[in-house]
């Protein structure tokens, strides 16, 4: 469907010729519970001015039944993606009657059947351009308009949208809900959810403004929904943003709905924010999980202003919403909630994502060149989110906090309900700061890559020089033997080499306080101190920066992997910050399975066994019932996926023959992780997994069961999983991920290397025939992680004409493999 990939130039031409006044969208979802019914009726009435005789509406659906232009029915000119409308007047009313298609991929209108109670749930997800899968529209962010949604659904269902309900008609079988018109918004943030959702209500008041609050989830998850905690964070965030943005919340209500099989963490639809239901914890959860959820709630809330109220013109300036939301989510967490250490998680999780992305050959400036929608889809990445947020943190230090927020407030007032570019924001931020931000923007927003900072004698040396405002912390041992900061030197650096006078200290930490965005290397003396005493660093942010420096050095081949793993083994058991512990455990597992040669990884004395034994021992020595104990249990499950030596012990615990470690909540998710580990090492049969499913026949259980079945180390099992991943178009997004993860479980190249050639042969077909979301999962998930770059290099050479987005994914996977091979070989 070549016309589905809209380009920047053609959409700019369309918005120059067409001005939208309003939409009325009518959706008939009354037959949604009939699973064999593929589609739903959708009718769009759109009013617009035009200075051209012809334009097009975007629609991806099963069929278009009729088109009426200014009261006259015209021939349908539809190519499967674009609906041509002609004979336009100065002002036009176009009515499109069509049939949309229920989605299984999380794109458009997703339909989910709950295996627990047989209930059907619907929700929409559009970003960047899937509203056209539900209704005919001008699918681009700069063509804002008010929307009136009218939804017909089965009686008894909750039906929610961006705005409050205006009218309801119910005949006992079906109910038709008409919502109040929205304020002007872009198509991609309109939203509808419908089904027998469980709903909890509250409200938030500030001055004369009262906002109704709602939290919704599937009925079968209602027992796990901690609504009071969610409302608390929501109200804290609304207080924070009301004070700092000085622009009243404009969207009338604030519903948050947790939905199944979601492709994202969350989406900022005004008045109806959607979240992955993974945030409804059906078992034990660590403090890091609660902190991460709070951060996501606040991230999406910041979007009510950054992105919803003021929206980028085109996806080049995606950062205008995502970078700000990422920064504001962390800032609000620190200053408005119990998660006062949120910058620690930001430094180690979000920035790690940015550092990884920024070292790929496909890296791009924060303000990116986005020629089309396929490119836009792939730019929801670590650069746009985490690097952009890191740079904003640097900007606040550069211009001053008060001046920054003054500029932000003026930005909202000047551009409310409009669209902006980088220049619009810089104009407002420059006015009060007294700084010309053009040079700053060129260095930080319009240039890719990052600096690496090192101490060399009496100077700070940086590669890829940029202007930095940073600090150096000097840490020494106190009387109790702890490493504490005794002095902090703050300075600006611009050049490759900047002299700095620093007193001697056992640990000298560059970028102390995490003010700037750069990789940091520890000098030799500081590294020696850390190797002996990392657990004595009392400040969690300082520890986080040290862990980050160690990980980046290991990834870059600058620090021997076994030294990194030894520090993880020795000091992770003492780590008290759950965000740091989670990150270190994940990184250590990755290092074992990617950065070590076979000789150091496998065998009885290899690091796979060493890491499993360390995780197992710490699971039992951790405080019973603690988040650390749960984190080590999960680490044990991951490690046991690659090494069978604890299989008998794990099986005995799962079957109830051996007591569970004291205090450990052996909830369904942890049980499935352990069963999957057994399956991957050949210690669990299909009968075992079926028996576990009988105890957890839920949506999560069925997905985990599918993953565990595909993990079994059997050639026929892998062949079936491969065929399913590539050929079974009935798989949902979550089920596809489960099959792919199971196929790859345990790193059994002896069983899956035979599919390498078939993978490359199928790439173009997958990209052409599957949606971009599903194709992306297949391309990334099934990429051959072998010991040679020859096949991927041949494919890239032979397919120079492949779509740019596909080539980008393959190039990135190639780079990940090249790094693995380079680090294994000890080559920097």
Structure description:
By secondary structure, the chain is of the alpha+beta class. It is built from 28 helices and 28 strands. The strands form 7 sheets. The chain has an 8-stranded mixed β-sheet with strand order 5-4-7-2-1-10-13-12. A hairpin with a 3-residue loop joins strand 12 and strand 13. Helix 3 packs across helix 4, helix 4 (319-336) packs across helix 7 and helix 25 (756-769) runs antiparallel to helix 26 (772-781). The model has no long low-confidence stretch (mean pLDDT 96).
Could you name the key traits of this structure?
globular, 8-stranded mixed beta sheet, alpha+beta, 828 residues, 42% helix, 5-stranded mixed beta sheet
Strand order of the largest sheet: 5-4-7-2-1-10-13-12
Low-confidence stretches: none
- Rough outline: globular
Number of helices: 28
What's a concise summary of this model?
This protein is 42% helix and 20% strand.
């Amino acid at each position: 469907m070549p016309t589905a990939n809209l380009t920047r130039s053609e959409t700019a031409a369309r918005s120059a010729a067409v001005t939208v006044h309003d939409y009325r969208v009518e959706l008939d979802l009354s037959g949604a519970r009939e699973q064999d019914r593929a589609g739903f009726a959708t009718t769009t009435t759109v009013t617009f001015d035009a200075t051209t005789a012809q334009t097009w509406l975007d629609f991806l659906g099963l069929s278009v039944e009729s088109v009426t232009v200014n009261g006259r029915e015209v021939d349908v000119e539809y190519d499967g993606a674009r609906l041509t409308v002609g004979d336009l007047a100065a002002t036009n009313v176009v009515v499109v009657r069509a049939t949309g298609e229920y989605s299984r991929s999380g794109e458009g209108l997703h339909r989910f059947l709950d295996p627990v109670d047989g209930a059907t749930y619907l929700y929409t997800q559009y970003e960047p351009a899937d509203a056209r899968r539900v209704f005919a529209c001008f699918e681009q962010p700069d063509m804002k308009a008010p929307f009136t949604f009218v939804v017909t659904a089965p009686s008894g269902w909750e039906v929610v949208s961006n705005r409050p309900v205006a009218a309801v008609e119910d005949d006992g079988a079906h109910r038709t809900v008409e919502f109040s018109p929205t304020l002007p918004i872009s198509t991609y943030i309109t939203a509808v959810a419908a089904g027998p959702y469980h709903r909890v209500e509250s409200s938030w008041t500030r001055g004369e403004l009262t906002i109704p609050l709602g939290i919704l989830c599937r009925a079968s998850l209602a027992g796990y929904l901690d609504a009071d905690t969610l409302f608390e964070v929501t109200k804290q965030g609304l207080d924070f943003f009301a004070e700092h943005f000085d622009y009243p919340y404009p969207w009338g209500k604030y519903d948050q709905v947790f939905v199944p099989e979601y492709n994202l963490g969350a989406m900022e639809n005004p008045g109806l924010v959607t979240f992955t239901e993974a945030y409804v914890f059906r078992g034990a959860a660590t403090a890091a999980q609660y902190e991460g959820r709070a951060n996501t709630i606040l991230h999406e809330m910041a979007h009510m202003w950054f992105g919803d109220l003021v929206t980028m013109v085109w996806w080049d300036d995606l950062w205008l919403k995502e970078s700000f939301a990422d920064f504001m989510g962390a800032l609000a967490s620190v200053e408005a909630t119990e998660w006062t250490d949120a910058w620690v998680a930001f430094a180690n999780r979000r920035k790690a994502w940015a550092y990884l992305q920024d070292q790929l050959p496909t890296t791009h400036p924060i303000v990116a060149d986005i020629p089309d929608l396929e490119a836009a889809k792939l730019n929801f990445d670590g650069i746009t989110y985490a690097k952009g947020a890191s740079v904003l943190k640097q900007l606040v230090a550069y211009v001053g906090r008060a001046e920054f927020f003054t500029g932000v407030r003026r930005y909202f007032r000047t551009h409310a309900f409009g669209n902006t570019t980088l220049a619009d924001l810089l104009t407002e931020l420059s006015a009060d700061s007294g700084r010309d931000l053009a040079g700053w923007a060129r260095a930080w927003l319009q240039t890719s890559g990052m600096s690496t900072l090192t101490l060399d004698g009496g100077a700070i040396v940086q590669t890829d020089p940029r202007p930095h405002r940073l600090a150096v912390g000097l840490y020494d041992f106190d009387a109790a033997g702890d490493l504490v900061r005794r002095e902090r030197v703050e300075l600006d650096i611009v050049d490759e080499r900047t002299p700095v006078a620093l007193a001697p200290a056992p640990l000298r930490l560059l970028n102390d306080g995490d003010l700037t965005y750069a990789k940091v290397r520890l000098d030799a003396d500081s590294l020696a101190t850390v190797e002996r005493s990392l657990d004595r660093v009392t400040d969690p942010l300082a520890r986080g920066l040290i862990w980050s420096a160690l990980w980046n050095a290991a990834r870059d081949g600058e620090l021997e992997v076994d030294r990194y793993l030894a520090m993880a083994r020795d000091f992770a058991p003492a780590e008290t910050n759950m965000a740091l512990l989670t990150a270190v455990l994940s990184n250590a597992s990755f290092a074992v399975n990617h950065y070590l040669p076979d000789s150091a990884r496998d065998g009885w004395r290899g690091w796979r066994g060493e890491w499993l034994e360390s995780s197992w021992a710490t699971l039992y020595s951790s405080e019973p019932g603690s988040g650390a104990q749960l984190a080590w249990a999960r680490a044990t499950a991951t490690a046991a996926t690659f090494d069978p030596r604890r299989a008998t012990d794990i099986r005995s615990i799962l079957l109830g023959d051996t007591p569970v470690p004291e205090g450990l909540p052996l909830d369904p998710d942890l049980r499935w992780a352990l069963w999957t580990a057994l399956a991957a090492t050949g210690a669990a049969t299909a009968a075992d997994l079926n028996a576990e499913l009988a105890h957890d026949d839920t949506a999560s259980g069925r997905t985990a069961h599918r993953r565990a079945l595909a993990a079994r180390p059997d050639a026929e099992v892998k062949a079936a999983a491969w065929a399913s991943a590539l050929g079974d178009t009935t798989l949902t997004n979550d089920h596809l991920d489960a099959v792919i993860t199971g196929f790859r479980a345990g790193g059994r190249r002896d069983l899956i290397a035979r599919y390498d050639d078939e993978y490359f042969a199928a790439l173009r077909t997958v990209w052409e025939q599957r949606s971009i979301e599903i194709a992306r999962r297949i391309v990334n998930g099934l990429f051959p992680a072998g010991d040679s770059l020859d096949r991927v290099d041949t494919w890239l050479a032979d397919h120079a004409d492949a779509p740019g987005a596909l080539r980008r994914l393959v190039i990135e996977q190639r780079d990940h493999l090249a790094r693995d091979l380079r680090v294994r070989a000890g080559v920097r």
